[in-house]
Design goal:
The chain is of the alpha/beta class and 368 residues long. Among the domains are: 89 residues, MurE/MurF, N-terminal domain (Udp-n-acetylmuramoylalanyl-d-glutamate--2,6- Diaminopimelate Ligase, Chain: A, domain 1), CATH 3.40.1390.10; 112 residues, Hexapeptide repeat proteins (UDP N-Acetylglucosamine Acyltransferase, domain 1); 38 residues, no CATH class. The chain is 12% helix and 27% strand. It is built from 4 helices and 42 strands. A 12-stranded mixed β-sheet has the order 7-10-13-16-19-24-27-30-33-36-38-39. The chain has a 10-stranded parallel β-sheet with strand order 8-11-14-17-20-25-28-31-34-37, with no helix packed on it. A 9-stranded parallel β-sheet has the order 9-12-15-18-23-26-29-32-35, with no helix packed on it. Helix 1 crosses helix 3. The longest helix is centred in the last third of the chain and has 17 residues. The protein is flat and about 80 Å long. The N and C termini lie far apart (65 Å). The C terminus is likely disordered.
Length: 368
C-alpha cells in the first residue's frame, strides 16, 4: 500500500489515480470558489482529516459529530462551512465555502483530474464501415461498434463494450468496459459505467393457451445530458413508447428500469431499486436502496421513497413514503411504535385493563 510521510494510507494512490500539483493556497481556494486569509502556502494533496499531514488539504462537513476529528487534524488547510470556521485548529487555514462538500469535489478534481481521452481505435476493436466516429474518440480493445453508429467528440468506449447498430452518442460520453448499448440515443456528458445494459428488450409477454408469447419491444432508450448509469444497471427499451432518463439523473449500480419508464430531471435512484414498466418519476425524485415500484405509477415531483419500500400506488409530490406497502413516513412509524408498545405490554389492540381483567372493546372480559 502506498503511504504518506507518516506511514498513513495515501488517498489517491498514484498507481490508480492521476495526480497533479502542488498548488498554492490561492489556487486551491479559487478551485473551491471559497474564501481564506492570504498566506504563502503550498498544498500537495488531498486527504481525510484523520490522516492529513501539514502538506495536505482536507474538508469537514457541517456536522458537530466531526468536531473531534477537526480539532485533531494535522492538515495545512481545511474546507469548512462558515459556521465551523472558528473550530479549525490554529495550525490550519480555514477555507470557508458555503457548501464544503461541493468545494471538496472541485479541489479533489484539481489534484486528481480525470484521465484524458487518448484518440484512436485499438487494433483489436471491430468497427463497422458505416460508423461515424469523431477523430477525437478513444475506442478500447475488443470493443464492437455496429453499423451506422454515431459517436461525438471526445468520447471514450471501454474495452469489450458493444454498441449496437444505429446508436447515437453525444459529446464527452464515457462508455465503461463490457457495457452494451442498443436502440439508444445518448446525450452529452453521459457516463455509462462498466457492465451496464442499455436498450435490451423489456419484460413483456402475452399469455396464451399454448404458453407465453413475447410482445415486440419497438421503442428506444433516450438518455438526456449529464446522466450517470451505474455498473451492472439495466435499462429496457420501450415497447411502443420510449424509455427516458431525464437530464442530470444519477442511477446507482444494480438498478433495474423497465420498459416505457420515464424518469424526470435530476432524480436519484440508489442501488438495487427496481422500477416496473410505464411508471413515471417526475423531477427530483429520490428512490432509496432496494425500493420497488409497481407498473403504471406516477411518483410526484420531489417525492422520496425509503429503502426497501414497496410502492403500489401513486405518490404525491414532495411526500416521503416508506414500508411495504409504502405509506407516509409518519404513519409508518406510528404503526411501528404501536406494535412495539403492544409487544412490550402484552396487550392486544382494543383491550383495556380494568380490575385485574383485560376488557375487550366489545365489553367481554378476558382473564388470560
Amino acid at each position: 500500500m502506498t503511504t504518506g510521510a507518516d506511514g498513513s494510507a495515501l488517498a489517491g494512490d498514484p498507481r490508480f489515480f492521476r495526480r497533479s500539483g502542488p498548488y498554492t493556497l490561492a489556487a486551491v481556494v479559487d478551485a473551491a470558489e471559497a474564501e481564506a486569509p492570504p498566506r504563502r502556502l503550498m498544498l500537495y494533496q488531498v486527504a481525510p482529516l484523520a490522516t492529513a499531514t501539514p502538506r495536505d488539504v482536507s474538508f469537514c462537513i457541517n456536522s458537530r459529530k466531526h468536531l473531534g476529528a477537526l480539532a485533531g487534524t494535522r492538515a495545512a488547510a481545511v474546507i469548512v462551512h462558515p459556521d465551523m470556521k472558528d473550530c479549525v485548529p490554529e495550525t490550519a487555514v480555514a477555507i470557508v465555502a458555503a457548501d464544503p462538500l461541493v468545494g471538496w469535489t472541485k479541489v479533489a478534481a484539481l489534484f486528481h483530474p480525470a484521465p484524458p481521452v487518448t484518440p484512436g481505435i485499438h487494433p483489436s476493436a471491430i468497427v463497422a464501415a458505416t460508423a461515424q466516429i469523431h477523430a477525437s474518440v478513444e475506442i478500447g480493445p475488443l470493443a464492437v461498434i455496429g453499423e451506422n453508429v454515431v459517436i461525438g467528440p471526445r468520447g471514450r468506449v471501454g474495452a469489450l463494450a458493444v454498441i449496437g447498430p444505429g446508436v447515437v452518442i453525444g459529446v464527452d460520453v464515457r462508455i465503461g468496459p463490457h457495457a452494451t448499448l442498443s436502440h439508444a440515443l445518448i446525450g452529452d456528458r453521459v457516463y455509462i459505467y462498466p457492465g451496464a445494459r442499455i436498450g435490451q428488450e423489456g419484460f413483456g409477454f402475452a399469455i396464451t393457451p399454448d404458453g407465453f408469447r413475447s410482445v415486440p419491444q419497438l421503442g428506444r432508450v433516450m438518455i438526456e445530458d449529464d446522466v450517470e448509469v451505474g455498473a451492472n444497471t439495466t435499462v429496457d427499451r420501450g415497447a411502443l413508447e420510449d424509455t427516458i432518463l431525464g437530464a442530470g439523473t444519477r442511477i446507482d449500480n444494480l438498478v433495474q428500469i423497465g420498459h416505457n419508464v420515464r424518469i424526470g430531471r435530476a432524480c436519484v435512484i440508489v442501488a438495487q431499486a427496481g422500477i416496473s414498466g410505464s411508471t413515471i418519476l417526475e423531477d427530483h425524485v429520490v428512490l432509496a436502496a432496494q425500493a420497488g415500484l409497481a407498473d403504471h405509477l406516477r411518483i410526484g415531483v420531489g417525492a422520496r421513497v425509503g429503502a426497501k419500500a414497496g410502492v403500489m400506488a401513486d405518490v404525491p409530490a414532495r411526500s416521503d413514503v416508506i414500508g411495504s406497502p409504502a405509506q407516509p413516513v409518519k404513519a409508518f412509524f406510528r404503526e411501528v411504535a404501536m406494535i412495539r408498545r403492544w409487544v412490550r405490554t402484552g396487550h392486544r389492540p382494543g383491550q383495556r385493563i380494568e380490575s385485574g381483567a383485560n376488557t375487550n372493546s366489545d365489553g367481554s372480559e378476558d382473564h388470560g
